[in-house]
Specification:
The structure holds two protein chains of two kinds. By secondary structure, chain A is mainly alpha-helical. Chain A has helices at residues 12-24, 29-35, 44-57, 77-92, 97-107, 112-130, and strands at 27-28, 60-65, 68-73. Chain A is built from six helices and three strands. In chain A, strands 1-3-2 form a three-stranded antiparallel β-sheet. Chain A starts with 11 loop residues before the first helix and ends with a helix. In chain B, strand 3 (175-178) and strand 4 (183-188) form a beta hairpin. The chains are: A mainly alpha, B alpha+beta.
């Protein structure tokens, strides 16, 4: 049988788990459960299943120490953010990131401070390109 | 050639019996809808499946009924054609004997034409049926392939004997299906984060498994290439699907582990998500979904969802001697289907009435010929 094709993107619940793992670095099922939103009413077994699937999908690595399994992200948050934005840009903005940014600036109700931050980022990026 | 004719005859019989059995079943349903069993969907589902099995066994049952009839009432024929001939001979049908015989032998003429494949009409019918059957076979084969694709794109959550509960990222509505060896319940992976919904959904799908609903679905899907053109096949299948869901809901609520309110909430919540159903859910798979007929789009589907919600909120009345009633209804339905199946069977030999009809036809022909000769002056 051909090996299963690993998905590039996380589901909503998986993203919550990965966010916890990005924060914790290396964590057990119980640690991740403790780090989730307080209103997230999740059984231990369900959390363990979600982490096992993340392991199968290649987003985390598992390591057994004694009786406890611990999980560590194999992909960092920045890389996933880039991947997720590239996917959004390809699927919703016809592969034109400029449209994505324009939509963000137009509609997101950005504060003056955030806009200044974006401008600084762009200036830095443009300087790097011209150098 | 005779073997081909026999096969075509069998196929025509099967379709006529299917239509007849559906009408019998509708009559029984009508009777039940006016009784205390109106909301007993388990009873109605068992009866429907029983009637379908009776259709499948109808050639054997019809043979038995014909033999029994011949032994008990040798002068009474169950055959519809024999009955029509008797009516003709008694003068209840005003028609020329030759025309009447032509109508009676229409089916045989058609079968012979189809078996020989001669004539434009016969060739067109053969082409249409072969094309339709090939498409139906391809759709069925595709659905088997799709089951494998879904299995490959999902993750095993639990394993019990030959049952796998799988988590899938690409679906919004849970469903059950089966492969050659194993049965599978597919659950949207996001549902892991909704423990109450997950519990209700799993108990629903496990109830389908207990009742072998997946196997019924698979068997009916495999019959599609044979009955693809017959609207009764689709109508009856849809009715079965409706009863299956209503009966499953009722069975779970009867255990009282979940309140009707929570159950209806779960149904509506899954329905809401099904509006954004994914490609994976729209592909053809012989499946028993949590929401098979309650998709949110469309007036008919809204009515179906409404029917399901109102069934959840009203439990059936207690009926005494339910078992006796069920078997009485089942036996009556089977007898009706068997009599119907016997009436369409080709008579084994020529009855006296048929010989009489044949003689009248010959006399009519002779008279026509004689009058023709006398007109010509011989």
């Amino acid at each position: 049988m051909r090996p299963k094709k690993k998905p590039d993107l996380l589901t909503e619940v998986e993203l919550e788990f990965m966010s916890a793992l990005w924060e914790l670095g290396d964590a057990s099922v119980r640690d991740v459960l403790m780090n989730l939103a307080p209103d997230r009413n999740l059984a231990y077994t369900s959390a363990a299943t979600i982490l096992r699937i993340l392991d199968e999908k290649g987003f985390v690595d598992s390591k057994k120490s004694g009786k406890i399994l611990s999980y560590k992200p194999t992909i960092d948050k920045d890389t996933y953010q880039t991947r997720s934005l590239q996917n959004l840009s390809a699927k919703l903005f016809d592969n034109t990131p400029a449209t994505l940014v324009a939509r963000l600036v137009d509609d997101a109700g950005l504060s003056q401070e955030s806009l200044e931050e974006i401008r600084a980022l762009l200036d830095r990026r443009l300087r790097d390109v011209s150098d | 050639m005779y073997q081909i004719e026999a096969l075509i005859d069998l196929y025509i019989d099967a379709n006529i019996v299917l239509i007849f059995a559906f009408m019998v079943w509708r009559l029984v349903q009508l009777g039940l809808s006016r009784s205390n069993l109106k909301r007993d969907y388990g009873f109605q589902l068992n009866l429907t499946e029983g009637a379908m099995i009776a259709v499948f066994l109808s050639p054997v049952i019809a043979y038995g009924v014909s033999a029994l009839n011949a032994a008990l009432f040798p002068k009474v024929s169950l055959n519809a054609a024999d009955f029509a001939v008797a009516q003709f001979l008694n003068g209840h049908v005003q028609m020329e004997a030759q025309k009447f015989e032509a109508i009676l032998s229409f089916r045989q003429t058609m079968v012979e034409a189809l078996a020989s494949g001669q004539g434009m009409g016969a060739q067109l019918i053969i082409a249409l049926f072969s094309g339709g059957a090939v498409v139906a076979v391809m759709v069925t084969a595709r659905s088997v392939f799709n089951v494998n694709q879904l299995i490959r794109g999902s993750y095993v959550w639990r394993r019990f004997g030959r049952l796998d509960i799988r988590l899938c990222d690409t679906i919004n509505v849970p469903f059950s299906t089966r492969g050659l060896r194993r049965r599978h319940i597919f659950v949207p992976s996001g549902m892991l984060a909704q423990p109450d919904e997950l519990r209700i959904t799993l108990s629903h799908e496990l109830q389908h498994m207990r009742r072998n609903d997946v196997e019924w679905e698979l068997a009916l899907t495999l019959l599609r290439p044979l009955f693809f053109w017959n609207p009764v096949y689709y109508l009856w299948k849809r009715n079965l699907e409706t009863l299956r869901e209503l009966s499953c809901d009722q069975a779970i609520l009867r255990r009282k582990r979940v309140t009707p309110h929570a159950y209806a909430d779960c149904l509506l919540s899954v329905c809401q998500r099904s509006i954004h159903s994914s490609f994976a859910e729209n592909i053809t798979v012989p499946k028993v979904p949590f929401l098979s007929f309650a998709r949110a789009a469309g007036r008919r589907n809204f009515t179906a969802l409404h029917q399901r919600i109102s069934a959840i909120t009203s439990q059936p009345r207690v009926v005494h001697h339910r078992g006796v009633l069920f078997w009485s209804a089942m036996v009556l339905t089977t007898i009706a289907i068997a009599v119907g199946a016997s009436s369409v069977r080709k008579p084994a030999d020529w009855s006296q009435d048929r010989l009489m009809l044949s003689t009248i036809v010959n006399l009519e022909r002779l008279e026509t010929r004689n009058s023709g000769l006398s007109l010509a002056g011989y």
